[in-house]
Design goal:
The structure is a homodimer of 337-residue chains. With 337 residues, chain A is α/β, with parallel strands linked by helices. Chain A has 12 helices and 12 strands. Chain A has 3 domains: 53 residues, lambda repressor-like DNA-binding domains (434 Repressor (Amino-terminal Domain)), CATH 1.10.260; 131 residues, Response regulator (Rossmann fold, 3-Layer(aba) Sandwich), CATH 3.40.50; 137 residues, 3-Layer(aba) Sandwich (Rossmann fold), CATH 3.40.50.2300. In chain A, the strands form 2 sheets. Chain A has a 6-stranded parallel beta sheet, sandwiched between helices. The first copy, chain A, has a 6-stranded mixed beta sheet with strand order 7-6-8-9-10-12, covered by helices on one side.
Chain lengths: 337, 337
């Protein structure tokens, strides 16, 4: 029995070849009734779809995925704009997935990529992500991966990062030079390599200034927004409250300012404040906030450019690429500058 | 000739049934060499994949798409969190697409959905979107669609909105009650139905107070961030500058505050300010910003719940659903409250 063609199938059905083709591709343009009829005849006549061709069609999704912990943070929203600028030039779509700081959710998202849904992945891991088995598995399936900002130290993969240790060290020295003797560092997770580096930079500057670096200097802020706000309020209500503070992520800034309003603690007179943030409102806060401003747009662009090199250039070993884009300390009123 | 089974195919190839199955599904777990061999034998033996079954498998992507103009806006980032909360309960993934206020890009994104990539769509249109042909086409392909916040008036589709007219009217009355006689309304687009409603609410309050509602009262802020900042600076440098201002979107707030810092224009003494924004930093600005706070999380949740009703409930006519969630005027120092 010779191989039946799509043309013969169409003739048998008395409909156009294009209709048959669309029905076999499960196109929305074709009614389910027609689809059922086409499938019935195709099965009866032993029609074999050209699997090679459809496999070829599927090969490139022209889509890249960005997996980030949250979107309500200026760093990520600006980084996404940098990523999209590069992707647009390349004619690619960008899908944004939110892990909501949950390792389980991040794993679930990455499992989806194994089916070839996307051509490449850019990821900034959750604060729960200690081990990266789910990420190496995706990489082993042939998916080009670039880490940005929040990386997994134990995975050899392309990474675009900023100088977290140095910028935290510089910010802390700035606080000390402005008279702080009891500064604290507000963290949200000690799992994250970027936080570990920021903490290390903070402690190094303290050590050099002969300031005790006991455990109480690093404060883990955990729980939901209300719980974090309460924790910070208690910190500032304490008679032995700090005289300086580094907020390691943007979402810690509003509760610090609010707690100061509530307790009558004056910024910068009683508490000098620096925040790691790309908040556009930083210069118009009361008082204007001194920030470690990360090159968010630049990081997004650089990471995307690297990913496309990995996608397009055969034989290019993406995993060895490391690029560091420097952050800037923007001195404003909140640190007494 | 009887129909050949996958089992016979595996036997002929001397490999496991599961390997054959995976190869036919183009799984990443199988080498291209093996895939080629499987396809070659499948073609030679006239193997017919069970199209019904694979069509069934494809039917539900368990993914919904959210198309928004931008992500660097607290309204959208909070709305996304509301959407994700509902999607998570339903076991669905959420894909976020950014249209960057470009109709061309929005159209391109929507065209992609016709292939059944997602099970439902939530959209807040761009400021360029006057006509919604690209959206009705997607709806006609059977895709459940819910508009949220920024809708297309001329499309009959489910919509979850807030009371833009009323909240703008209330905000304007608040400015007038606090002594404003020359207020202006800063807009970014008169295409958008939400902006038209906010403008109408503003003009109605002015009319009732016997204040001239000439064209100069509504100011269109266009161009990139720098151009908008210059435009606002010029407005406040003008000797006949306004004594009150409504910023109709979040991104207009920082340039207004910055222009005041540069020109020595004091908020609220010289200029009373209200902003439509969900900015968490609103209470800690200098001075604290009076806001029309939209129920962003609630809008996201409500819209998602509606979409899932459309996806899951056969015969449910989504297109007639309209839900209005009310905004709140949060009076703070910037309006002289």
């Amino acid at each position: 029995m010779s191989k039946i063609t799509i043309r013969e199938l169409a003739k048998e059905l008395g409909i156009a070849v294009s209709t048959v083709s669309k029905a076999l591709r499960d196109s929305h343009e074709i009614s389910s009734e027609t689809k059922a009829k086409v499938l019935e005849v195709a099965t009866r006549l032993n029609y074999i779809p050209n699997l090679y061709a459809s496999s070829l069609r599927r090969q490139k999704s022209r889509t890249i995925a960005v997996v980030i912990p949250e979107v309500a943070d200026s760093f990520f929203s600006i980084a996404i704009n940098g990523i999209e600028e590069v992707a647009r030039e390349k004619g690619y779509h960008v899908l944004i997935y939110l892990s909501h700081e949950s390792l389980a959710r991040e794993t679930e998202i990455l499992n989806e990529f194994k089916s070839g849904r996307v051509d490449g992945l850019m990821i900034s891991v959750t604060s729960e992500t200690c081990s990266g088995t789910h990420i190496t598995e995706a990489m082993n399936s042939g998916l080009p991966v670039v880490f940005f900002d929040r990386i997994c130290e134990d995975i050899q993969a392309a990474r675009v990062i900023t100088d977290d240790f140095e910028s935290s060290y510089t910010a802390t020295r700035h606080l000390l030079e402005n008279g702080c003797r009891q500064p604290v560092f507000l963290s949200i997770s000690s799992n994250l390599s970027i936080n570990q580096k920021r903490e290390a930079g903070f402690l190094k500057a303290l050590g050099e200034a002969g300031i005790q670096t006991d455990k109480g200097r690093i404060i883990q802020c955990t729980g939901n927004d209300e719980e974090i706000a309460m924790q910070i309020l208690h910190l500032l209500q304490n008679p032995e409250r700090p005289d300086g503070l580094i907020a390691s992520v943007e979402k810690l800034v509003p509760p610090v300012y609010m707690a100061c309003q509530q307790t009558g603690c004056r910024i910068p007179e009683d508490l000098r404040v620096v925040g790691f943030t790309n908040l556009p409102a930083a210069p118009i806060l009361n008082p204007a906030l001194t920030t470690v401003t990360q090159p968010a747009f630049e990081i997004g662009k650089t990471a995307a450019a690297l990913l496309f090199k990995g996608i397009e250039k055969a034989g290019f070993d993406l995993s060895k690429e490391i690029q560091v884009v420097r952050s800037r300390l923007m001195k404003r009123a909140s640190s007494g500058a």
